[in-house]
Amino acid sequence: MNEASLKICLIAGKKVGKKTFLRNHVHLFFHEDYMMMVGVEFATRKVDMYGIKISLSFWVISDEENRFKYLYRSFIAGSCGVILLYDITNQDSLTIFPNRIQMINDYSDENEIPIPILLVGNKLDLDAHREVSKEQVERFMEQHDIFSLMEISLKTGENVEHMITEITRMILTKRYPNVIK
Fold first, then answer.
1. Measuring CA to CA, which of 37, 98, 124, 175 is 20 to 30 A from 138?
2. Which long-range contacts (CB under 8 A, 24 or more apart) does 75-78 make?
3. Residue 17 in 3-state DSSP?
4. What is the pTM of this model?
5. CA distances from 176 to 3, 4, 180 (A)
6. Strands (DSSP E) along 69-164, which ranges?
7. Residue 20 half-sphere exposure toward CB, CA atoms < 13 A
8. pLDDT tens for residues 71-84?
9. CA distance 62 to 149
């Protein structure tokens, strides 16, 4: 396998950093691949990993839950991985995830390949204003069987490349275990 295309959904609430992620960390590199449509925006970024040329399609799902709720399932369909992005300075930013996690798990069960989920806390540059404790996040992860967590700053870029590498590694390990050594 020399090439792969991977669809990754990024799910986040309002004012968590979805547009900053696309603008500063994805389509900055491949602006011509940026598209917007009702309820979702997506952009493509190419990376090389394990000797594989990978096209990552990031689908950023709208936070207008009531308006686009009926579309979530179709946006999640075909996803290889999901990033759940919350704001460490906003206590309520984790509350949107439980029903979305259930949709992801339901879709995984239908397709027999579990969709890797990476929980990511944004706004690490504002750590002094943290409202979401690390203990809260650990409890959340236990309750929802999520095993991967990291914190980033989309503003400064801290750990963003690591996040992209980590979700890609998680997907490749799940989908192509014989290729990744």
1. 175
2. 75/9, 75/39, 75/40, 76/9, 76/103, 76/104, 76/107, 76/115, 77/107, 78/7
3. coil
4. 0.88
5. 12, 10, 7
6. 81-87, 117-122, 148-151
7. 16
8. 777 778 888 999 99
9. 22
Pairing of strands 3-12, 148-151: unpaired
pLDDT by position in tens, the chain (length 181)? 688 899 999 988 888 887 777 776 675 444 444 444 456 777 888 899 988 899 999 888 766 555 666 677 777 888 899 999 999 999 999 988 988 898 888 877 677 778 999 999 999 999 999 999 999 999 999 999 999 999 999 999 999 999 999 999 999 998 878 776 6
Which residues does 150 contact at the CB level (< 8 Å), separation at least 6? Answer: 118, 119, 120, 121, 159, 162, 163, 166
180 and 172 Cβ atoms separated by less than 8 Å: yes
CATH superfamily, domain 3-175, is P-loop containing nucleotide triphosphate hydrolases (3.40.50.300)
Straight-line distance from the first to the last Cα atom of the chain, in angstroms, rounded to the nearest whole number: 13
Residues 22/61, Cβ–Cβ less than 8 Å: no
- The span from the CA of 149 to the CA of 137, in Å, is 9
What is the CA 102 to chain-centroid distance, rounded? 15
Instruction: Tell how strand 117-122 and strand 40-49 pair up.
Output: unpaired
